[in-house]
Amino acid sequence: MKITVIGGGPGGLYFSILTKKALPHCQIDLYERNKADDSFGFGVVFSDETLSEFLTKDPKSY
Predict the structure, then answer these.
(1) Where are the domains positioned within the chain?
(2) Using CA atoms, how far apart are residues 26 and 4, in angstroms rounded to an integer?
(3) Where does the chain show beta strands of DSSP type E?
(4) 27 vs 21: CA distance, rounded Å
(5) Residues 6-49: pLDDT tens digits?
């Protein structure tokens, strides 16, 4: 199976991590329009419930 992810923001990256863990045989291609060293000053706030899910699904990246 091949999966293409458009956008390397927090959602695209986390989706890719969890999908690769769940389906290691899949090929995941992630496309981002910006350069790797581009930086944007945005913040992300997650609810306690979301953080709990992060910890459960992928403790290493938590």
Answers:
(1) 2-57
(2) 10
(3) 2-6, 27-31
(4) 12
(5) 999 889 999 999 999 999 999 999 999 988 888 776 778 889 99
